[in-house]
Amino acid sequence: MKKNDIYEIEITGMTHEALGVGKVDDMAVFVQGAIEGEKVLAKIIKVAKNYAVARVEQWLAVSPGRREPFCPVYKRCGGCSLQHMTYCMQLKFKHRVVTDNLERIGGFRGIHVNPVIGMEDPMNYRNKAQYPVSMGDSGPVAGFYARRSHTIIDSESCGIQHPGSEKVRNVVIDAVRKLKIPVYNEETGEGILRHIVTRVSYATGDIMVILVVTKENVPGLDRLIRRLTDEVPQVKSIVLNINKRRDNVILGDTVKTVYGSDTLVDRLGHLTFHISPLSFYQVNPVQTVVLYEKAVEFAGLTGSETVFDLYCGIGTISLFLAKKAGRVIGVEVVPEAVEAATKNAKVNNIFNAEFFCGAAEEVVPRLYADGMRADVVVVDPPRKGCDEALLETMVKMQPERIVYVSCNPSTLARDLKYLAANGYGVREVQPVDLFPWTEHVECVVLITKL
Ligand code: SAH
């Protein structure tokens, strides 16, 4: 087999990145853009030792799960990877990704996974956009990175973002062109504006704009602020984030409010949240409520329990739990988020929640050594999952229930395997679709003491 060869391939499976999988003479071939059940003529674009990668030249049989992507830059943009699948097919695909991970990495053969809870309307769901800015052929551009690259695709509008974010991006970039605000150059490190980040409150329509810049002194900033607030009156807060780093990390550590409020206010269910610029906040508010309600249901609270909410961010899950618990203890590593969590408890008249700042794997062993015990532990770690030191302490603490909220099925499977080997049983696995059109999937899992 060599590059540019063309083969007829039956697609019999899919990778977790949504490439079609087929075989040519026992060699696995990953076919971009092909869906399981399809038959294609595909051109080989790469040959490695044990596998090859191919691109579809012609469809010989088309899956009923295929649809026309709605975005004109779908093929180039790195944001979405499932737009060629119907929404129903996407949910089935994600269900399989979760099941596969639990079976292969977790060792849970034949495990039952609930159907993925999807959105009624999976469009314009994102409350946060991060647009990298750079110099294009005809002036500054802000858009999305192309797949596996740092080339910026300058699209006019994105179907998964809130229209308010798109409006802000377009106004800022136009102002940047006219005011000649220097844009950042990744190669030389010169220039000022690096990213335009927006956060939208779906409850109020208010928008926070975070301008990521290399220095505080931005020429033309006053005029930029005036234009932005005139043309997009929903903008209630503009914040500079200073980032002098030379790597890919989007946000720096310091923020300075240059217009309006320091925080954005949103509501989830019956609760109000103040969101600070550097804190994590779920990007899909509609599905977040579905997710949190499942987490509360799985926690099975009667009103007397002590609950730990680890990796608590600005205290969202903690406060959902607090009304039904005796006491909630949240742990979070970002100081700004802990501050917001404490404020959010007050704002919602919740007095049985307290928050500790630090790494969960350090704080929880300390609390345990001090004699503190949890009846229920909720964890919601970042993609890399829980530190083993934390899992070890959780097992020692022997809570009746553990509720694991996860944005990465493979580390979820790894951590569940640890818990299953240490006296806990997986009771229910509920995927929730927080990220339609992308390959990402969120899960909430109930684990109980055997
Ligand atoms: N439960 C929250 C946040 C989940 S995101 C929500 O639903 O909004 C994961 C959070 O874990 C982030 O806020 C991140 O800052 C925090 N985090 C990352 N590593 C951590 C660690 N080792 N210990 C505690 N918190 C951590």
Notes on the protein architecture:
This protein is an alpha/beta fold and 450 residues long. It has three domains: 6-61, Nucleic acid-binding proteins (OB fold (Dihydrolipoamide Acetyltransferase, E2P), Beta Barrel), CATH 2.40.50.140; 104-118 and 284-449, Rossmann fold (3-Layer(aba) Sandwich); 128-267, OB fold (Dihydrolipoamide Acetyltransferase, E2P). Helices cover 25% and strands 31% of the residues. The chain contains nine helices and 23 strands. It has helices at residues 87-104, 163-179, 221-231, 285-299, 316-322, 335-347, 360-369, 388-397, 409-420, and strands spanning 6-10, 13-14, 20-24, 27-32, 39-47, 51-61, 128-136, 139-142, 144-145, 152-153, 193-200, 207-213, 235-242, 254-260, 264-268, 271-275, 306-310, 327-332, 353-357, 376-379, 401-406, 424-432, 442-449. The strands form five sheets. Strands 19-18-17-20-21-23-22 form a seven-stranded mixed beta sheet, with helices on both faces. Strands 1-5-6-4-3-2 form a six-stranded mixed beta sheet, with no helix packed on it. A hairpin with a 6-residue loop joins strand 9 (144-145) and strand 10. Helix 1 (87-104) packs parallel to helix 9, helix 4 (285-299) packs across helix 5 (316-322) and helix 7 (360-369) runs parallel beside helix 8. It starts with 5 loop residues before the first strand and ends with a strand. The relative contact order is 0.10. The mean pLDDT is 97. Bound molecules: S-adenosyl-L-homocysteine (SAH). S-adenosyl-L-homocysteine is lined by residues 280-282, 311-313, 316-317, 331-334, 337, 359-361, 380-382.
